[in-house]
Amino acid sequence: MAWFLKLTFHAVLICIVLQSFSTDDAGQLLCPIRELIISSYQESLQLVEEALLHSRQRRNEPSSSNRMFSFHRQTAPETLEISRAADVFQTTLQVLKNKAREIYKRDVTAPELFSREDIALIGKLSKCHPTHLTTCQHISKYRSISGLCNNRQNPLWGAANTPLVRWLPAEYEDGERQPKGWNRGRLHNGFQLPPPREVSMEIMKGSSKSKDDAYSQLLVEWGQYADHDITFTPQSTGLSRPTADCLSTCENLYPCFPIQTHEGCMPFFRSLPACFVNPESDIEQALQQQQMNSITSFLDASVVYGHSLKMEGALRDLSGLNGKLAVNDLYTDPKGRPYLPSVATLPSSCLQDQDGERVECFNAGDTRVNEGLPLTTLHTLWLREHNRIAEALRGINRQWSPETIYQETRKIIGALHQIITMRDYVPKIIGPESFEHYIGPYGGYNPTTDPSASNVFATAAFRFGHATIGPIIMRLNESFQVHEHLPPLKLHDTFFSPWRIVKEGGIEPILRGIIATPSVAVSPNMLLTEEVTERLVITNVNHHMDLASLNLQRGRDHGLPGYNDWRVFCGLKYIKTLHDLNEIIGDDKVAKEILNKYRHLDNIDVWLGGLVEKFLPGSRTGPLFACLIGKQMRALRDGDRFWWEAEGMFTQQQKAELVKASLSRIICDNTDIREVPYDPFRFETYPSNYLPCNHLPSINLEAWREERSSELEQCGTPTKINNGDFILSSASGKLVALYSCYHGFQLKGAPALVCEGNRWSDPAPQCKGNPH
């Protein structure tokens, strides 16, 4: 039937197009379908541009509520450009479907109507196709900042601004883009989905949280930090194509998907759409709206360095010619240690101390750096560690260029992120048995493994940590007691407040607090603290938000299949009865509340279902989230050509040094803290099991000493250039100087110089252009 519909539709479209032309024009038409697609694209482009102009005008109004949403979690221009292309693509499909509806007098699905050639043409017109990258030439021995070309056969795998991958097909109410719950009154398995706010208040309600004496609060904070290294799903905050103000409307009007409450609604912006990567592989996924991961999926320390050349350039100390990262030029801590640099656009939107000078938002590799004090603290720690290692490598290898120092340091920092996350963090979260089952020992790089972050991981599974957020941030003195001058802070008083670090004792009181405070225990009847369900702060927005409602609505926005579908995906038991549910949760009252609220077990949102499962032995997740997190972590490891254990990444001597690393030692090397637990993720009561810093092993960077090669002695050091630099590599047994320019400059001349005989093969290139 589908082929007949498509054939008929095309025949009718031919007639429609022919009628719009004169006889002479019709005779010249080679492809009337193509002409109709082009006209529909032009109509769509106009719709999107008009809405974009409308939204810009509204944001420029002094009273605009959208201005109040502009906290520093900004979406990069290249992300917005790709999302706009995806928007034009989706709108073109809708225009064409509307024409089909007029023909057939009923709704028809896109796969019934469009061929692969049609989709390719619409993609090309909307610029929603990956033609900007066809080959990976001049591949550096260091990973690209955007993740491109990590996989040589599939260059977009794991790269920034590509879709979150689907492990199960999306479930939209119209099959293509409408979230679950979009059409009010729509039944799912015979029942309406419960409003997320009701689920939050009645099932996930906050209460006093008990303590998990096995692990410290640092385990929670590292989870957020690691998540920010892997995923960032940008939201449409009025930059795409709204015709309504999502902060004031309670209607479902794209991109607004407000969360209904008894008092009205909470604002909710749908996630930005993403362009498909490969329409040939799955036409149905190309036709469905997909969401974007705007950062690299890899565990690559993009949280430190950024995910684009522009971000990276803004974070580097290029003028220092030392391979270091830029630091704050206004403030240092009491011992002269650096803080993160301030953002460039001033005044920033961070909250301020009422009694004193402004402290602007900090800048880092991830724009969420200011969301909370512990997160900002971890970012600061890694800034200092990069600069500490870069300085040491510069002393060890005087012949290294600044670019080589920077890239080698970045490579080490990336390895440390991988080691701490996979060795010290993940096994505690999913348990040793799940780690062995889903991840197992490393077997080398596998180019057939797609390392891209999955939609269910980013939107549900790795949000398990939201239930472990505590209501209080402790600040402790040198004896790990409550600080005499810095009292504990309620969580909502720490949001977007970098001034507290600068003016209230630096990062040490916060670090001591998250090391020496036990993490929050999670149970089905105590899921999220009221600090995030009733008092979640978004800067300058006159709404207290609810994190639980946001997570549930986000899952529906993305069309995530239900909890039972994911259990089947993981090979777990399908839940058929209340008894089954109670067996998995271990709390009869909570099981009854969930069934009474959802009415059908297949309707349970995956995030809620995964959260309430009983923990596996030695873990902090149930079997579903252990499966989903485990599968994702293995993909991130095995599909990363630059994984620290991969062949050729480090020498055996360097690997032996890297495994000595620990987060405790990094804290010792970059703060004033002199005693730490060996494993800071495990909770220890001071002073029991706290070690002096000099008792902890450290990396001996002498393993990175590199003797000057005989070829370099013959050809001499390559010429230094303005606004760019080189790294030395080898190809086919010959020494190669590979030049690159800083962001904003274009390379003119040969990018690769080969040492041949006793001279370089070409003159050094130049970097031309304007960085601004």
How would you characterize the overall build of this protein?
The structure is a single chain. With 772 residues, the protein is of the alpha+beta class. The protein has a domain at 710-768: Complement Module, domain 1. Helices cover 38% and strands 8% of the residues. A four-stranded antiparallel β-sheet has the order 12-13-15-16. A three-stranded antiparallel β-sheet has the order 1-6-5. Helix 14 (432-439) crosses helix 24 (623-638). The chain starts with a helix and ends with a strand.
Chain-wise SSE layout:
Elements lengths: L1 H18 L3 H6 L3 H29 L16 H28 L5 H4 L2 H11 L35 E2 L32 H7 L8 E6 H14 L28 E3 L2 E3 L6 E2 L8 H5 L2 E4 L8 H4 L3 H7 L57 H24 L5 H29 L1 H8 L15 H5 L12 E2 L15 E2 L8 H5 L4 H8 L2 E3 L9 H4 L13 H11 L5 H7 L8 H8 L2 H11 L7 H7 L10 H16 L13 H7 L4 H8 L4 E3 L12 E3 L17 H6 L8 E8 L2 E8 L4 E3 L3 E5 L2 E2 L5 E3 L4
Antiparallel strand pairs: 1-6, 2-9, 3-4, 5-6, 7-8, 10-11, 12-13, 13-15, 14-17, 15-16
In short:
About 4% of the residues have low confidence. With 772 residues, this protein is of the alpha+beta class.
